[in-house]
Amino acid sequence: MTELELLIDFHVDAERQGPGSGEDTLKALSMIDINPEASLKIADVGCGLGAQTLTLAQNLNGCITAVDLFADFLTKLNDRAKKLNLENKITTLEKSMDALPFDNEEYDILWSEGAIYNIGFESGLKNWKRFLKTNGYIAVSEMTWKTKNRPKEIEEHWNNEYPEIDTASGKIKILEENGFSLVGFFFLSEKSWLDNYYSPMEKRFDAFLQKHENSDAAKAIVEGERQEIALYRKYKDYLSYGFYIAKKLPS
Ligand code: SAM
């Protein structure tokens, strides 16, 4: 198994592939001015196993294109959608988020939880904006500093992992510079990190190591995650995912 296949295998049994919750998805959705009569077109980019895709499908009138780079995640999302009788509202698409095959102004809402970092916040906004109708909405969650100054250890770690990490005011400025107007923002709670993401992940470590016979590559994945969790627990006052909800203004 390659390192990438191992990583996919590590995440494919999880409920969600990043911090978040159904309540966060619904809170972000509540900030969007939706015409209840309209049937909406939504794209969920970097959907993973689709925790948020399912919540959106249960709470919106319309259809969702759920995009991810990895077929294994999408296969599971299709199974989950069928079990909930949501298969008519969700279409999966195996594509990279920097090469989306969408038409200009095709979508009412672009959704992306914990995934835009794969191509970078600003690059993602610039890349995806044309797919959104004028006055349509983008809703993205993104790693964000909660303070202006941070302890050196966490500052260095995240600057190295994701140099685009910034404060919410920095991210909002980027939205504004790219023709979006912020309609809502909130930070994800500790519960969305610990109860919904890291604690379930910690419970999978032993089974994962056993399945892969304690290979060095499997141990490296677990060790990397353990370090990230320890850093989060130590420095959770300084960072979280920010959820940004913004409207595309006429250009
Ligand atoms: N939105 C899901 C959630 O919150 O549970 C998944 C978040 S996970 C941190 C990031 C997702 O982005 C993964 O499912 C990964 O497969 C996907 N991804 C990574 N690079 C991608 C790319 N270039 N194009 C599309 N999806 C990508």
UniProtKB/TrEMBL annotation:
Pathway assignment: Lipid metabolism; Phospholipid metabolism
Limits of the Methyltransferase domain: 42-136
Source organism, top-level taxon: Bacteria
Gene Ontology annotations of biological process type: methylation
Catalytic activity: phosphoethanolamine + S-adenosyl-L-methionine = N-methylethanolamine phosphate + S-adenosyl-L-homocysteine + H(+)
Keywords: Methyltransferase, Transferase
InterPro entries reported for this sequence: Methyltransf_25, SAM-dependent_MTases_sf
UniProt key word Transferase: yes
One Gene Ontology molecular-function label: phosphoethanolamine N-methyltransferase activity
Stored Pfam families: Methyltransf_25 (PF13649)
UniProt-recorded name of the protein: Methyltransferase domain-containing protein
